[in-house]
Amino acid sequence: MNPVNLAIDAWAQPAGAYRESMPEVVRLFEKSGSAELLDRRLTPEETVAEMDQAGVATLLLSAWCRPGRWVCSNDEIAVFTRAFPERFVGVATVDLSKPLAAVRELERAVTELGCKALRIVPWLWQLPPNHRWYYPLYVKCIELDIPFCTQVGHTGPLMPSETGRPVPYLDEVALDFPELRIVAGHIGHPWTDEMIGLAWKHDNIHIDTSAYLPRYYPPQLLQFMGSYGQDKVLFGSNFPQLSLSRCMAQVDELGLSEAVRDKFLHGNARRVFKL
Length: 275
Description:
This protein is α/β, with parallel strands linked by helices. Helices cover 39% and strands 16% of the residues. It has one domain (3-272): TIM Barrel (Alpha-Beta Barrel), CATH 3.20.20. The protein has helices at 26-32, 44-54, 74-83, 99-111, 122-125, 135-144, 166-176, 192-201, 219-225, 244-251, 258-272; strands spanning 7-12, 56-62, 64-66, 69-72, 88-92, 117-120, 148-151, 182-185, 205-208, 233-234. The strands form 2 sheets. Strands 1-2-5-6-7-8-9-10 form an 8-stranded parallel β-sheet. Strands 3-4 form a two-stranded antiparallel sheet. Strand 7 (148-151), helix 7 and strand 8 (182-185) form a beta-alpha-beta unit. The longest helix is centred in the C-terminal third of the chain and has 15 residues, at 258-272. It is globular.
């Protein structure tokens, strides 16, 4: 296996134990055919085996915090990255409701644990990304030279979708922080055209395709990533919600040129996350 030529998955998280800690996602996992992974924890070794079978070189593995509790801490992510530093990249998160502590935790996660990005999922906090609590974190991301990752589009989980609208929320963030590299995950459906428009408008905004099987990528996204947006779209799965093997098999069905496929699967992620 030559990891240089294999996929970098821009959005994944450790598998297991979400039924109680994230009840909102149970229905999403059931509809995606991955309900068995709601309760089954995968070790780093088992996760690498899944990656090898699919042809995925690297997972950007995210921590999760929700109001009132940690679901998967930055230190738990570090267990994976320390076990297989060549296969896992840590994506930090923070308790958004405690701004000063959040900035300190982000700095610790990057400088001590080696995380390469920050992810906040707006629907979980019911706060859009232009809310004041996010802004100190954006400054710290720029100082640390790491991307800010977030979710756009409707929510598969049974939560309000308004926070996932690209316009006006993410547009305002990009205008206020043009030096902040932003990766917007989950395509943005049903506001895909808004998301594509922002990625074209702002040099610092990128899209990742997580939570959608390649067979269901919107036609306008495929047209964008095959032409003037070929440097702007990153492959993502949202593993374990979607199977790595299914995602990778369906990428082969997209008919991408070799150059576009290479950028989509690994080149853009390597550049944006500075891997």
